[in-house]
Amino acid sequence: MIHVLSKHANRFEIHPTQVLCRPGDADTVWHDGQEHGAISPRQFLKPGSDFLRLVNPYKPQAPKVILRCLWGMDYEGPTEGAAVGQGKDVSGADKAFDYAKMALHQIAGSAASTNILVQPVADELRNKSDVSIQADGTGLLLEACNQTDQSIVREDQLPEWSRTLNMTKHRGLGFWVTGDQSGAILTIQIPGGDYVVPIDFVGRRYIEIPNAQVAWSTGYWGWRMGSKRTYYSDVRWLKMGFGILPPKSHPRVRVEGLKALREIATELRNPVLRIGDASLKVDGVLESGQYLVWDNEDMCEVFDANWHQVGTLPVIRDRFSWPNGEAEFKIDADAGAILPWVEVQLLTRDDPIAVPLTN
Q: How far apart are CA 334 and CA 353, in angstroms?
């Protein structure tokens, strides 16, 4: 919860405010990173995916919507191999905080044309420590054992292999995982970036993660000092293993077909946000990188990647309100374009605390 302040003619109002999260501890809490700024809960989903269950702790109300259209990805698209490079740490405070340079680098140049295969073979991996990694057909079988009564956390000490690639236009990862429902957290890392998968399922499943910052929003992993700045432009190594081993666990997980996915500029056409059978339809198009903000008005505002307003779009509201407690949320959109990933925050607030103004 945070407190949002507004000024009125004769008073200030302080509104306790929350971003809606999944039940339990699935999502991160609001926090600040040293020299980084605020990190807040958010959801990542694709239009047409299953309903997501979120919780409103306050009275029924229409949530404020902050939505960003990300990029589309195609795992089955053309793929090339990455160069096998020498492992090298990328560090230095001056580079770590050069966000302007990073943003320019991401925008410059033409779009990527292929995915990049980065799947290692077993013999390439080093620093295996307490993880057994064996070839298993075209994939790798990862196995570890925690016999203690406490979770084992490995933020950095994971098996590593060398690749040289620029991921500024390949920030997403796609791969196949065969899970055993052990509760372990499968972790794949690039310099300064984490991609995490809870092994809460059994069987083979396709996993797609649109960028390394998704991990910041997960309650079981979150933002950390080691992921405050992701070096997409200078990837010399990748790591893969179990970031978290639950107590008394023996996970056995297969990983195959690991690719860095090219980002495909696309559109979110006439999106419809649904709370159960209620809806909010946006009449118009949002492009990759743009933000949409709606705050209980007849129009929503559209912003570019640097939060410069570029327009407005009309909305059609049909009972769009969140009840107190849990409800189901999803996004639909018109066909005709590659569907993008969407980053969304839904905010609700409690009754205000009034602070009278005095002369």
A: 42
CB 27 within 8 A of CB 41: yes
Phi, psi of 216 (to 5 degrees): -60, -25
Cβ(8)–Cβ(353) below 8 Å: no
What 3 state SS string does the chain have?
CEEEEEECCCEEEEEEEEECECCCCCECCCEEECCCEEECCCEEECCCCCCEEEEECCCCECCEEEEEECCECCCCCCEEECECCCCCCCCCHHHHCCHHHHHHHHHCCCCCCCEEECCCCHHHCECCCCCEEEEECCEEEEECCECCCCCEECCCCCCEEEEEECCCCCCEEEEEEEEECCCCEEEEEECCEEEEEECCCEEEEEEEECCHHHHHHECCCCCCHHHCCCCHHHEEEEEEEEEEECCCECCEEEEEEEEEECCECCEEECCEEEECCEEEEECCEEECCCEEEECCCCEEEEECCCCCEEEEEEEEEECCCECCEEEEEEEECCCCCCCCCEEEEEEEECCCEEEECCC
Confirm if 339 and 266 have CB atoms less than 8 A apart: yes
**pLDDT of 263-304, one tens digit each?**
999 999 999 999 999 999 999 999 999 999 999 999 999 999
Can you list the domains of the chain with their CATH numbers? 2-72+265-356 (no CATH), 79-261 (2.60.120)
From 296, 281, 291, select the one nearest 349 (Cα to Cα): 296
**Banded pLDDT at 108 (limits 50, 70, 90):** very low
pLDDT at 174 over 90: yes
Q: pTM (2 decimals)? A: 0.91
Q: Is the pLDDT of residue 190 over 80?
A: yes
